[in-house]
Every structure is written in structure tokens, then in C-alpha cells.
Specification:
By secondary structure, the protein is mainly beta. The chain contains no helices and 17 strands. The chain is rod-shaped, with a radius of gyration of 25 Å.
Length: about 180
């Protein structure tokens, strides 16, 4: 979720008033309670994996004691990118190099980037070229000259510590 929801309860008749805070992956978050609850937008990118944190509560009202939660864990999973591949020309001669236009986009509000990650181009199950995405998550890959016939071209986004590996749809290239 892009929002942390924290609830503070009390044995007192009234809802606790005060501020909750926590630190997640080095970024501190804090917000005032409203009816004993706070919804805090998470604004910093967090690396995938399991992260532990404790939430704390403080109040200026003396009937509510300062307290800290038990350790909580949040699991951040790798994002699944969208990989698109298109052929500059769907038919080339065997003396020409075909070009595959690759674009990788990443979902989510934290603006994770697919820049500087490798992509591999396959002809069927055979890897024929590797290239690196630019800062916009794009690259035009010039393929080696291929034999006459029909070739099934797909692109594999290799992935990294925050992004899953993902394949494009297969494109048909005809070489005459």
C-alpha cells in the first residue's frame, strides 16, 4: 500500500490525541491522530525485502502515556514492469540488421526506474543480443544479420533488486 495506517487505542473513554511517528528505510514519517487514527502517505522509494519498524505515540495530554509499538514488519515486493518491444521493420533482407525498439515502464506512485538495466533479445530460445536501457527506460537494439526465414523475436527485461524479470510479447520478423 502507498499509505501506512496507524491506530492508537486507549482504555480511557476518549480517543487518544497526539502524534504518531515511525521510520521506514531511513525516512521519518509523522502525523497527528484524528479519532485515534492516522493515515500517512509513504513518499520515499523503499528497496524490496522485509523491513522492520516501530511506531511511537506522543501526546501533550497527560492522560495518554508516550508509547512505542511492538516491532512490525513490512514486506516490499519487487514491482512487475511492462516490457514492450516493436520491430522498426517487420521484414528485412538477410543483408540488413533489424532493429527492435524496447520500452520498459514501471507501475506505482514511487517512480521506480528501469534505467541502466539490461535487456536480452531472443530469436526463439537463442539469445542474440544484450543491451542496456537508457535513463528513460528505452533502447533501440540493432540485431545481428539473420538467416532467411521467419524469426520469433522477444525481449527479456533482466530485472534488478526492485524489479522483476519480464518478457515482452513475441514479434515475428521475416528475413528475405
Amino acid at each position: 500500500a502507498k499509505t501506512a495506517k496507524i491506530t492508537v487505542s486507549s482504555s480511557a473513554a476518549s480517543s487518544p490525541s497526539g502524534t504518531v511517528s515511525f521510520t521506514l528505510a531511513g525516512k521519518k514519517y509523522s502525523k497527528a491522530l484524528k479519532n485515534g487514527q492516522a493515515s500517512i502517505p509513504l513518499t520515499a522509494a523503499v528497496k524490496s525485502g522485509t523491513h522492520s519498524f516501530k511506531a511511537s505515540f506522543a501526546s501533550k495530554d497527560s492522560k495518554f502515556a508516550v508509547s512505542t509499538s511492538k516491532t512490525a514488519k513490512v514486506v516490499i515486493t519487487k514491482a512487475t514492469p511492462k516490457v514492450s518491444a516493436s520491430l522498426a521493420k517487420s521484414t528485412v533482407t538477410k543483408k540488413q540488421n533489424a532493429t527492435v525498439k524496447v520500452a520498459v515502464t514501471v507501475p506505482g506512485g514511487l517512480k521506480a526506474k528501469a534505467s541502466k538495466v539490461k535487456v536480452q533479445v531472443f530469436d526463439g530460445s537463442k539469445k542474440i543480443k544484450t543491451s542496456t536501457l537508457n535513463s528513460a527506460g528505452k533502447v533501440n537494439v540493432k540485431l545481428p544479420k539473420l538467416k532467411s526465414g521467419t524469426h520469433k523475436i522477444k525481449v527479456k527485461f533482466v530485472g534488478n533488486s526492485n524489479l522483476k524479470a519480464k518478457n515482452s510479447v513475441v514479434r515475428t520478423l521475416k528475413v528475405k
